[in-house]
Each structure stands twice: as structure tokens, then as C-alpha cells.
Amino acid sequence: MSRTPTAPAECEDNHVDPTLPRRLWILVSAAGLLLRAQDIEFVCPMDRDVRSRFPGSCPRCGMKLVAGLPMPVEYPMDFRADPPSLPACREVSLEFRVLDPGTGRPITRFEIIHEKLFHLFLVSQDLEYFSHEHPVLGRDGWFRLKTQLPKPGVYRLLADFDPTGGTPQLAARTFSTAGWSATGPRCSACRRRSP
pTM to 2 decimals? Predict the structure, then answer.
């Protein structure tokens, strides 16, 4: 069985350079990496089907296109309220803290989505109440919002945020207010304001 000889590289003294195959492999590999680096695709973090070969903004939502996207990873979110009993028809403070999924440390840098760092949607179980709010990020890593829930009951909150270096997140929590019962009337302060 004969092998087809490869064309040898010859040095000035007519000897074959034994390092050529290794050099050639390194050169071809480096060229491949450079070509792949030139094929960077910019993607919208919210609308993953919007792609471009150049940086810019998403034509749908206006978000900054990013070079490639990391694999989606869920970021844990802490939720607390003050007062903790969450009374209806009174001012309450809702607080949210996003944690790094690898270290458990609070995240303090977020991308702006539709002009805000954090979007909060509050919806009552009976769908009579809906609110779109923007909690404010404090130096301690907690987003805070003062609000008033219009009646006793069960509420669902959806938090929309995008940690810098991560992927867009949508975290949900369900909670009920103090004084809630499945058949109970609204609190008296809320009844006075109802149409």
C-alpha cells in the first residue's frame, strides 16, 4: 500500500522542515478563529429572532442589540413587603432583590428595558385590578415601590428585568392581602371609593 507523498517544504539547504505541518495547523486554526470572530451576530435580548451583523437597536422594541446571547439562566428574586401582612387599602412597600444564580449575591447592574430597569405588573385574581409600575433600585440592591392594593384578595405580580450580562427575566409571585376571604366584602375604605 503506497502513501501519496505530500509536497515537502524545503529549507535553503534542501532539507524538509519537520515543523511545517504543525505550523500549518496553527495557521489554519487561527484563520478559522478570526473568520468566526468576524461572524459575530448581534441579537435583541427580548426578541431573539431579531438579528444583525452590526451593532444597533432592535427595530421592534428599541433595545440595544448585543453580540451573541448567553444561554438563558433563571435569576432568583427575593420578595418582601412592609408591613409583611400586606393590608389592602393602605400604603404598602413592595421590595424585590435579584440574586446571581451562581453566587447568590445581589445583582446591582441591569439593562434598561423600555426606558426602565424594572417593570412590575400587579394583577388581582379576579382581574378587576391591573397596575404597571417601576420600582426604584436602591444602593443596597433592593428595588422598592410604595403602592396601595385596592381590595383584600389574591394578587399575582410579574417582575420583568434584565441583569447585565444575563438574559431577560420574568419572575412571578402570588400573594394574598391581610383580611382576605373568598366571600368577604371589600374593606370599608375601598367601598367608599368604588363607583
Answer: 0.64
